[in-house]
Amino acid sequence: MAEHDIQTSPFSSPEGADKILVKDLDFYYGDFQALTDINVSIKQGAVTAFIGPSGCGKSTFLRCFNRMNDLILGTKADGLVTLDGQDIYAPGVDPVDLRRRIGMIFQQPNPFPMSIYDNVAFGPRLHGVKSKAKLDEIVESSLEKANLWKEVKDILDRNGLALSGGQQQRLCIARVLAVRPEVLLMDEPCSAIDPTSVQKIEDLMAEIKDEVTIIIVTHNMQQAARVSDYTAFFLQEVAGEPAELVEYDRTANLFTSPSDKRTEDYITGRFG
Amino acid sequence: MNKNLTNSLAMAFLWIAAGTTVAVLFAVIAYVVVNGIMVITPEFIFTWPEGVNAEGGVWPTIVSTLYVTGLAMLIVTPIAILAAVYLAEYAVQGRLVNIIRFAADSLASVPSIVMGLFGLALFVETMGIGFSMLSAALALSFLMLPIVMRTTEEAIRSVPKYIRWGAYGLGASKWQTVSRSVLPAATPRIVTGIILATGRAVGETAVVIYTMGQAINLPLTPFDSGRPMTVHLYLLAMDGINLPAAYGTALLLMIMILAFNLGARYFLRRNRKV
Question: Domain with B111 in it: what CATH number?
């Protein structure tokens, strides 16, 4: 528990390079401003959790990293977001290429209505992998990493929708890992699944974070405390006003000695 | 009025209404079955009409009907699916798309005899294709196109958005998302739409009477003429020479259409179950 004493600013962390850097980000849905003046640096090889009450813009912010918001009409991101130092909103950046480097898991498990094998092979096939041997290898290793291989290795040709909700979510994780992303965005991945699968997903996060930088949105504070190295607390103080990033720190610090009163109120359960 | 009495009365009327619906359906089917069942033998199905086409079997008309329906399906399916994909996924939603949709819905409600007349003028005469499977299939496709297009569009729209997100999230382009994840997810409902439209085409009379001709003929190429079952039935009944054969043909038609509808249901069920 020595970690608690280390007072490290997330902006000058000695360990872990900045994978993603966000500077002065404002985000709009049409005329409504959802986020204001967000500054954050996401560390490579770490798990970062976004917490905060419902509707505080955590998921919106998460979708800025792979430009998923581009699919929603009338949205606008204003500010700088860089991946490995490169502005991802710069003209000439293809969001399709970006999403290959930054994978995403959604709240609702969303396997495609096809076999387990085809689900995992979907991404590699999309990007031109044709060799059966190569695909077999990717499918196996991805399912291994997603802690699902043992349960499905004999039923790879069964429809992915036949699995339980928690297995479906792990299948979706395997499907994303199969394209070997550098960053994995998880938008409340455990809110709709059984506890056993939650456990398995939390385990796998710890196992893969060295190779994949993970950002997880969760409104389960225990989960944030369990799985993450860094935590960001978001809050929309007045309805109709944009949400802001209240505090961002090492998870251990944020949960034990928050520097902002609002963070303390939230983590001690006084609201939200 | 007494509350219980009102309730009983309402129940009674509901029962009568529901009963009437079932009775009408049952009466029509029973009438055709009773009159037609004795006629249907393997011989009736697989032999040619004889004499003044009033005796013997109906084999060439079955072939003509299946031929023209299959051909129409081949013409309609790609066009309808591409149009639906465009409308549902690519077109900027607004006035123009609403007009296209309204046009499709209107096209679906044009009386089929008008469509037949149009087919006669355009395909048979102006384009010089003559009375043929092709003319009839083209005219039928006008009838089927809006049905298939609209059901396909609905099928595509009903694919949950998180299926799309899944594909986009893996770095799929728009076309890859549509062709590899949205269309496969929509396939059961698309196929159902095609089968239902095909059932409609099998039973269609007015369109084909103008465009296929009436000659008893076993069609080989799309340019051959023929006589579909519906027209055969019409002529048999109107001439009044062989009513039993008319009922037999009618029953065969009903069985075919029923088979199409059951096929559609089966397909949808099988694909829902995973």
Answer: 1.10.3720.10
CA triple B64-B65-B68, angle to 5 deg = 80
Question: Would you call B169 and A99 a contact, using CB atoms and an 8 Å cutoff?
Answer: yes
Model pLDDT for residues B149-162, shown as the tens digit of each residue: 999 999 999 998 88
User: β-strand A230-235 against A244-250: which pairing, if any?
Assistant: antiparallel
What confidence tens digit (pLDDT) does each residue in A124-178 have?
999 999 999 999 999 999 999 999 999 999 999 999 999 999 999 999 999 999 9
**Chain A partners of B169 at a C-beta cutoff of 8 Å?**
66, 68, 99, 103-104, 106, 176
Q: How far is A128 from chain B (nearest CA, A)?
A: 12
Strand A102-105 and strand A230-235: pairing? unpaired
Q: Is A115 on the interface with B (CB under 8 A)?
A: no
Q: How far is CA A203 from the centre of its chain?
A: 15
Domain that holds residue B166: 60-272
The CATH number given to A15-267 is 3.40.50.300
Nearest CA in chain A to B184: A113
In a domain, B93, yes or no: yes
Q: How many domains does chain B have?
A: 1
